[in-house]
Amino acid sequence: MKIGFIGLGIMGRPMAGHVIRGGHALHIYSRGTPPQELVEAGAVVCGSPREVAERSDAVITMVPDTPDVEAVVFGPDGIAEGLGHGKILIDMSSISPMATKKFARMLAERGCEWIDAPVSGGDVGARNATLSIMAGSTPAAFERVKPVLELMGRNITLVGSAGDGQTAKVANQIIVALTLEAVAEALVFASKAGADPMRVRRALMGGFASSRILEVHGERMIERNFEPGFRVELHQKDLNLALQSARELQMSLPNTAATQELFNASKAHGGGRLDHSAIVKTLELMAGHEIGGGAAKVSQT
Amino acid sequence: MKIGFIGLGIMGRPMAGHVIRGGHALHIYSRGTPPQELVEAGAVVCGSPREVAERSDAVITMVPDTPDVEAVVFGPDGIAEGLGHGKILIDMSSISPMATKKFARMLAERGCEWIDAPVSGGDVGARNATLSIMAGSTPAAFERVKPVLELMGRNITLVGSAGDGQTAKVANQIIVALTLEAVAEALVFASKAGADPMRVRRALMGGFASSRILEVHGERMIERNFEPGFRVELHQKDLNLALQSARELQMSLPNTAATQELFNASKAHGGGRLDHSAIVKTLELMAGHEIGGGAAKVSQT
Question: Which of A44, B59, B162, B197 supports an S-S bond with B104, CB 3.0-4.6 Å?
Answer without folding.
Answer: B162
